[in-house]
Amino acid sequence: MSREVLRGGLILIFLAALTWGELQASIATDGSIPILLLFSVFKAILIAYFFMHISRLWKAH
Amino acid sequence: MTALARSAERGRAGIWVFFVSEVFLFGALLSMRFGLWGNTRPDLDQQLGLLVTSILLASSFFMYLAETAIDHDRRIIFLVSMFLTAILGIAFLIGVIGFEWGGHLQPTDGVFGSVFYAMTGLHALHVASGVLFIATIGFKGLRGNYSANDHFGVEACAIYWHFIDVVWVFFYPAIYLMGTAV
Asked: Which residues of B touch A26 (CB under 8 A)?
C-alpha cells in the first residue's frame, strides 16, 4: 500500500506544480487560452491516474 | 463471475454513462464561457482561486488514499481519509460560496456575472452532493460495511469525486486565468 500512497503523493505534487505553473503562465502570456488549456489537459491526465487506479475497468477480476 | 462482481460491473457501466451526460452539461457551460467572455474575464481574487483549487486537488488525493486503504482492508485510514476529503470539500464550498460569491461580482452583472454564477453554482452543487455521498459512504463504513473484496460504494464515490475535480481543472483557468481581466 505504501507504494500506492507514494505514487498518489507524487501525482499531487505534480498537480500542485502544474497549478502554480498555470498561474505563472497566465501572468506571462496575459491569459493565453491555448497554453492554459494545455496545462488543464496535463492535469486531467494526471488525475486520470486516480481513475485508472480505482476503476476495475482496467483491472482483472 | 460472482453475483457481487456482476452487480458491481453493471454499476460501473452506469457511472460511466452518467459521466458522459455530465461531460455534455459541463462542456456546454465551458462553451458558454468561451462564447460570451471570449478573450476576457472578470477581475477575481486570484489568491482565493488558487486556494480553492489546491483544496480540491488535495481532496482528490485523500479520496484516492481512502479507496486504496479499503482495498487493503485498512479501515482506520479509510475512515480518516474519507473524513478529510469531506472536510476539504466543505472548505472548497466555503471558499467559493462564502467568499467568492460575496465579492464584488453579482449575478446581475451582465455576462460576467451570469456565466460566473452558472459555472461555479453548478459545480458547487456537484461538490455539495459529493460531500453528501462521502458522508453516506463514511457512515456506512463506520457501521462496518465495505471490505477489500466488497467496496463498490467507495469506488463509485471516489470516481464521482475525481470527476468533480477534473471538471474544476478546466473551470479554474477558464474562470480565473484565461483572457484579459476587465
From this structure: 173, 176-178
Query: Which amino acid is present at B40?
Result: T
CATH class of this structure's domain B46-181: mainly alpha
pTM of the model: 0.90
- In terms of residue numbers, what domain contains A14? 2-58
Cβ atoms B39, A31 nearer than 8 A: yes
Total domain count, chain A: 1
Residue A8 in contact with partner chain B when CB distance is under 8 A: yes
Which residue type sits at B137?
A: I
Per-residue pLDDT reduced to its tens digit, B92-146: 999 999 888 987 888 888 899 999 999 999 999 999 999 999 999 999 999 988 8
Instruction: Provide the 8-state DSSP code for B181.
Output: E
Cβ–Cβ gap B165/A47 under 8 Å:
yes
User: Rg of chain B over CA atoms, in angstroms?
Assistant: 18
Q: B64 at the A interface (CB within 8 A)?
A: yes
Distance from CA of A60 to the nearest CA of B (A): 11
DSSP letters for B8-68? HHHHHHHHHHHHHHHHHHHHHHHHHHHHHHTTEE----HHHHHHHHHHHHHHHHHHHHHHH
CB pairs under 8 A between A and B: 92
Contact residues on chain A for B74, CB-CB shorter than 8 A: 1
What is the arithmetic mean of pLDDT over A34-45? 92
ipTM of the complex: 0.85
Q: Do A40 and B173 touch (CB under 8 A)?
A: yes
